[in-house]
């Protein structure tokens, strides 16, 4: 059973690193709502790099050489990132829902997001949800390892 949990854990880490797609998609939409999507960009970039670092530590075997309570650190890391990513997912969903909001710019009324930006933001919202779900599953596995 432990080997199955370990393999699930590695797969979840891989999908968390794929959360970098959120960062790429939001950036490609030209960030029409910088106040909302700035936080999404910050969380996705930070989580992407720290997940890569964490995965590198585990795959390289450095965790056996560093004397620390890795089960607690794993739980704390996934809890913090899950909370931040859940907030980022909600903000990205809110930004996407403003598609039909009309803006008055120099006497021309146009939607806040054009169709291309809307489609990109929908994809970013879906990937943000999937990444949040992966962090939530990893959080449950980390809790299980920390508190047997």
Summarize the structure.
The chain is 76% helix and 5% strand.
For the record, give the distance between the C-alpha atoms at the N and C termini, rounded to a whole number: 13 Å
Number of strands: 2
Number of domains: 1
Major beta sheet, strand line-up: 1-2
Class per helix and strand makeup? mainly alpha
Put simply, the count of helices is 5
Transmembrane segments: 7-26, 38-63, 75-98, 118-143
Main location: membrane
InterPro entries: MAL, Marvel, MARVEL-CKLF_proteins
Protein name: MAL2B
Describe this structure in words.
Helix 4 (70-97) runs antiparallel to helix 5 (115-146). The longest helix has 32 residues, at 115-146. The chain has a two-stranded antiparallel ribbon. The chain has 148 residues and is mostly helical. The two termini are 13 Å apart. The protein has one domain. The protein has helices spanning 2-17, 20-28, 34-60, 70-97, 115-146, and strands spanning 102-105, 108-111. The protein contains five helices and two strands, in the order H-H-H-H-E-E-H. It is 76% helix and 5% strand. One of its GO terms (cellular component) is membrane. It is found in: Membrane.
Keywords:
148 residues, two-stranded antiparallel ribbon, mainly alpha, MARVEL-CKLF_proteins
Write the SSE topology.
Elements: H1 2-17, H2 20-28, H3 34-60, H4 70-97, E1 102-105, E2 108-111, H5 115-146
Antiparallel strand pairs: 1-2
Membrane topology: Multi-pass membrane protein
GO cellular component, one term: membrane
Protein name: MAL2B
């Amino acid at each position: 059973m432990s080997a199955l949990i370990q393999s699930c854990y590695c797969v979840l880490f891989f999908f968390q690193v794929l959360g970098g797609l959120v960062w790429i998609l939001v950036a490609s939409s030209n960030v029409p709502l910088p106040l909302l999507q700035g936080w999404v960009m910050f969380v996705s970039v930070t989580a992407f790099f720290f997940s890569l670092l964490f995965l590198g530590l585990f795959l390289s075997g450095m965790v056996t050489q560093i004397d620390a309570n890795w089960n607690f650190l794993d739980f704390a890391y996934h809890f913090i990132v899950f909370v931040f990513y859940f907030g980022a997912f909600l903000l990205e969903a809110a930004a996407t829902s403003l598609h039909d909001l009309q803006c008055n710019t120099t006497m021309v009324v146009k939607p806040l997001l054009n169709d291309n930006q809307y489609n990109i933001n929908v994809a970013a919202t879906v990937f943000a949800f999937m990444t949040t779900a992966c962090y939530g599953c990893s959080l449950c596995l980390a809790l299980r390892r920390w508190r047997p």
